[in-house]
Amino acid sequence: MTAPVSFVVSDDEGGTRLDRLVARHTGSSRRVARILIMQGKVCVRRTVVKIATREIRAGEQISVSDPGEVANPKELPKVEPRILHLDHWLVAVDKPAGLLSETGRQGSPSIETLVPRLLAEAGEHKTDVRLVHRLDAGTSGVLLLARRSQACATLGDAFAHGRVIKTYIALCQGDLGRVQLIDAPIGHVRGTRQGVVEGGKPARTDVESIATTQDASLVRAQPKTGRTHQIRVHLAHLGHPLYGDGLYDGPRYVGKAPPEPVPRTMLHALQIEVTHPK
Q1: pTM given for the model
Q2: 136 annotated active-site
Q3: Strand partners, 85
């Protein structure tokens, strides 16, 4: 057993993913950091957090128990996507929260690496796929991948020129109220954090409350542009950040005696409408 490691996230580190912080402060690789997190050995503010991609705020304390003890990765629980639709042109999958869309430099599991295996298991001989759009690691929901170069070009063009209707479901803080169009430019603030800033890129999001209480609103959101973290930034700008979204000051605990941690950012890609590339 090795000595535990504890540290406070600095201002410069604010907004950095948990796995990167753990790797940096324990001197381990990103792969080992993710295993430690999945094993429940990492706490943020004394609460176990198992989402490696969670973005951590400055001032939060992180502790890692037994950083030198890592179990066999084969014993770790799997986070698997699920095939929603499959044809000769494309595949639609349900991406779980915490899984990357594209393979990172560290070779982490991703939709790009897992979907070919799912296709092979389904008896498909052609397993090559190409992402045509992406979801944030912490966001779950429908994701499209092309199986032919023509489909990739056609779908990519549709996304690039706004011929796709994307519908999300989100849980945000407070009573959002009426249907509204949020029209506010988005730009980089610091680290991975974006914000509504003067001179930012145009960004528009339609939002509609499905159900509300004094403490929370279940919201349907349709981004009309494709800015980084757009729905998260726009709702936070209105004073209604998403539950579990620490990067944008969303509530991370609910209930009382004792409060329960929100395990993820409460954002789900519910539906995509696009002309089939056939």
Answers
A1: 0.75
A2: yes
A3: 92
